[in-house]
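User: Hey, my collaborator sent me this sequence without any context and asked if I could get a structure. I don't really work with proteins. Can you help?
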Amino acid sequence: MAVCVIVAPVAFDLLGSRCVRHILTCFFGNVVTMARKNREKNTDTTPTLADGFTTVVGDVEFRLRVDNQRVTVFLDGLESSALNLVDASELEFEYMQYMTCVLNAFYPVPAPISALHLGACACALPRAWHALRPGSTQTAVDLNAPMLDLVRSLFDLPKSPALRLRHQDACESLAGVKPGKFNVIVRDVFAQGVTPAPLRSPGFYEQAANALEAGGILLVNCGHGDGVDAREEVRYALEKFPQVRVIAEGKTLAGGRRGNVVLAARFPFASEDATQTAAYWDEVSRGLRRLAFPARFLDEADTKRWAK
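Assistant: No problem. I've predicted the 3D structure and written it out in structure-token form, which is a compact way to encode the shape of the chain:
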């Protein structure tokens, strides 16, 4: 709407200049306000399940790739976790599928378990096990406290005590565990693609053995290749556990490419005999063969030969 104002000539300059200053002040004030709001919007780091969402947690870049109901978490550019937002029991990473096959052979679904996860990221594995085994109690430990807060806010993780998220060094957490407390211990800890040395030591395997109950299972995600040799860890495990097996892709075991090697170590149940032990591991092998991408399973003799 246009407004025409007629004033006496002698008053025009004074009145006009005041009006112009007022209009300019309002205009530029609005421009500054809009620019500030746009800047705040563009730098908003409110957690959101949006493709490309990126933030820094601790000293690590955390980025999401969202593809319909599937979310992949990248830490410093490396694929570190994957979740199905609709089906919590689905595990995309193959090494987690291997671990689940081992667990299911000794503790059939839906039996609840007590589990300690050293290394949390997005908690894909404890989330899946909770969906498959209601009543389980699990603890996920990670040194990155901001990341634990972030994944708790982003994903539908089980609440405590079903899943406790603990900010603590993995070695310190394991050292403080009471003897025989857990059915399962999972080690899945990496920093820039390498597991810290204290978690690859004979002392780690001794502490893990102490923290497991009779029949308990240690499941270890080992990197192998490009200067990292998982066979050393297998030798440490063989010194502390009566039963040790190895699962991985054939090319990884042959040294043809870097990949994940799952080390499974355990003590027998109190009433377990050799026949029952063989039956348990046979069930592990059958479970692995049912996967979409079957892995190679090394029995006791093959595991010892590979570790030399």
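In plain terms: DSSP finds ten helices and twelve strands in the chain. You can pass these tokens on to your collaborator as they are.
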